[in-house]
Structure formats: structure tokens, C-alpha cells
Amino acid sequence: MADTFRALRIEKNEDSQTMNLIDLSESDLMEGNVVVDISHSTLNYKDGLAMTGSSPIVRTFPMIPGIDFSGTVRSSEDTKFSKGDRVVLNGYGLSESHFGGYSERARVKSDHLLKLPENISNKQAMAIGTAGYTAMLCVLGLEDSGIQPESGEVLVTGASGGVGSVAISILSSLGYSVVASTGRLSESDYLTGLGAKLIIDRNELSEPSRPLGKERWIAAVDSVGSQTLVNVIAQTQYGGAVSACGLAQGMDLPLTVLPFILRGISLVGIDSVMAPMNKRERAWSRLSTDLDMKKLNEMVVETTLEEVPTFAEAILAGQVRGRVVVNIS
User: Fold this and answer.
1) Cα dihedral 251/252/258/264 (nearest 10)
2) What DSSP assignment string belongs to 236-276?
3) Which helix (H) or strand (E) covers residue 315, if one does?
4) Rounded to whole angstroms, how far apart are CA atoms 200 and 181?
5) pLDDT at 146 (0 to 100)
6) Among 44, 101, 123, 223, which lies 20 to 30 A Cα-Cα from 254?
7) Rounded-to-integer distance, Cα 69 and Cα 120, Å
């Protein structure tokens, strides 16, 4: 019998897409010079978009979704990697143009793989996932803009989601005073447990308001976009910075230049998909030292390859708290 493995595959016809758990062989995989046995993947907002077809994330069909994975090298044509190396891959077109992490095996380019720090397990790597790695990139963006714990309060929007949860944990561990904005005030105890000092209702930030508001925080991590990001910027203190990494509310940005030319605000764009390897290595190195793994564990819900499609609609509806780890193996 041929060596087969399971994968969740999306197929598309003229007017709809379907998703099924199927058996594949290595010859079915896409190009690459490293084969990885995947142990874990995760669920991100972008995965929800891909699996439901509600946004044109997938560019090539059929497609295995899952924008990230962790696992162990099975074979490598590149001497940088050896059989048994523990690796992680975030982005680089996974689930868009290259088969993603919802599979027991993957073939990928060695230039896209990163060896995991020794103190981060494969499961922890996906508890962090692209959301947590993006959160770390956001924190680094603020640091590179001169923001320090003593600078003032830092706002985190979309606080109950994956990026928000990890950002709060990292920032609080580093000594920042964190303000968490959420649409689910019932999660206040959860957010306080992660380290948030103050919880505010997202409605304070989601509606149109003045181009410049009262100065409230020195910096922010925003995964919401649209009018929320406009209001976050409008209420950022003089010389502050905002890391922007998401569009849960929308991709529009109806703002004025006033916060930039009157208060010297910096808007830091955060891209996790095609970030160069030196940024990735810096982010994962910092995650290995600055993220409280006990707090990380408290954010995690674990599921399986069979069950992950049931989370797709929920994450788009904002009903998923923290991080969903998909146990592939």
C-alpha cells in the first residue's frame, strides 16, 4: 500500500467551494526541497476566510488550508536542515498559493522554514502561531519607534482574539500598562488574567468621531482596522506609535493627516506573511524569552483536523477566544 497521509482539502466549482478530509501521497504535494511531518497547526482569522470562501484568500485550487504549521523534518535536500529538526513556518503563501498546515505532511522551500527555539515545543509554537508571531512583530515595531514601558499606557484592540491575547501577555510581561479594547466585556476576567490593567468597550472606538481626540495612550497594537484604527490614532499621545496588523472591522481607513502632522504619530505597518527571515528570527527569539508560557496555555483551545472546519464561521463572527491549536498528528 502506498505511503499516504490525511489532509483537509478545499475544492471549487463554478459557484461554490467544498472541503473534505482526504488521503494523499507525497507525490500530490507541491514543490519544495524539505518534507515536514506536521504535528500541529492553528486557526487564524485568515484561515476562517479561506475555509468559508468569504474572502478570496485562496488563489489556487485545490488547496490545503492552514496558514502555518509546526513539525519535524522528514527529509531535506538543503544541508541547513536535518531529519528530526523541529521547525515552524508562518505565511509565505501557505493556504493561498501553496498547500498549508491542515495536512499530516508538507513539502516546502527551506528558505521559508525556521528552526524552533529549544524551549518552545511544537504545540507551543502553534499556540503562538501566526497570531502570536504577529503580536511579537507589533511589539517590536513599537520598540523600534522608541516606545518603552515608562512611556505610558498601550492599547490593544481586538483584545480577546489571537493577536490581542498574545500582545497583552507579552506587553504586560515586559512591564507595560495595557488597556484592552473588546466587544466581549464578559471576557474581562480572562483579559485581566493575561495582564490588562483596564478594559474598555470596543464601541468607544468603533464609530466615526473627531479627527483629533483626547490624548489617551502612547501606543497601540491594532488588529481591527477601519474606523477603530482611525479613532485609536486620533487618541494617541504626542510622539506615539500604532502597530497595525489586521482588518477585522474593514480594510478602509477614513482618517485625516492631523494626528501625523500635529502630534507626530507613527503608523507602523506589520506584515507577517512575507516578513524577511531576520525579522522572523528576531520575533521567535523574543517569544522564547518574553512570552509567559503559563499564560499562553490558558489561552488555548485544542481541536483536531476533523473538527477545525467547525471553528471557521465562529472566528469570523468574533466568537473564538484566544488561540485554537489544531493537533494534526
Assistant:
1) 10
2) EEEEEEEEE---SSBS-----SHHHHHS--EEEE---SS--
3) helix 312-316
4) 5
5) 98
6) 44
7) 14
pLDDT for 2: 58
Helix (H, G, I), strand (E, B) or coil at 190: helix
Coil, helix or strand for 183?
A: coil
Residue partners of 86: CB distance under 8 A and separation at least 6: 70, 71, 72, 73, 115, 116, 122
Secondary element (H or E) of residue 168? helix 162-173
Q: Determine the 3-state secondary structure of 23 from DSSP.
A: strand
Residue ranges covered by each domain of the chain: 4-116+296-327, 130-269
The count of other CB atoms within 10 Å of the CB of residue 248 is 20
d(CA 1, CA 88): 30
* SS3 label, residue 76: strand
pLDDT at position 197: 98
The CATH class that applies to domain 4-116+296-327 reads: alpha beta
Determine phi and psi for 194, rounding to 5 degrees: -75, -20
User: Which residue in the block uniquely carries the three cell numbers 523534518?
Assistant: 73
Q: Do 4-116+296-327 and 130-269 come out as alike in CATH topology?
A: no
Among 112, 107, 116, which Cα is nearest to 37's? 107
* DSSP per-residue string spanning 169-181: HHHHHTT--EEEE
| 130-269 CATH pick, 3.40.50.300, 3.40.50.700, 3.40.50.1000, 3.40.50.720 | 3.40.50.720
- Amino acid identity, position 323: R
- The CA distance from 191 to 76, in Å, is 42
pLDDT digits (tens, 9 = 90+) for 188-246: 999 999 999 999 999 999 999 999 999 999 999 999 999 999 999 999 999 999 999 99
- Residue ranges in the chain modelled with pLDDT below 50: 1
Residues composing the chain? 329
